[in-house]
Amino acid sequence: MKKILLYISFLFFGLNAIHADIKYTLEDGVLTIEGTGDMTMPNYSDEKRPGWYDVRYDIWEVIIKDGVKNIGDAAFEDCSLFYLTIPNSVTRIGTKAFAGCTSLFSIRFSNSVTEIGSFAFYNCASITTVFLPESVKLVGSKAFKGCGELVEFSAYANEDLQLGSGILEDCPLMGAISFYGKNLPSPLSAELSNSEDWNLGLNDKILQTCELAIPEEFYDKYESISPWNKFAKENVDISLNLNDDEEYVNPEGTHFGFTCYVRDFKNTEWQALFLPFPLTVEDWSNDLDFAYINDIRQLDTDDDGNIDETWMDIIPIKEGCTYSGWPYLVRAKHTGKRFFHAWDYVLSSDEIGASEGPRCSTTSTEYTFIGNYKIMSGQEMADHDYYGIFNGELTLGDGESILKPCRWYMTYSVSDYTYFNEKDVSSTIKINVIGEEEEEEEENVTTGIKDFRMTEKADNSVYDLNGRKMNEDNLKPGLYIKNGKKVVIK
Question: What mean pLDDT value characterizes the chain?
Answer without folding.
Answer: 81
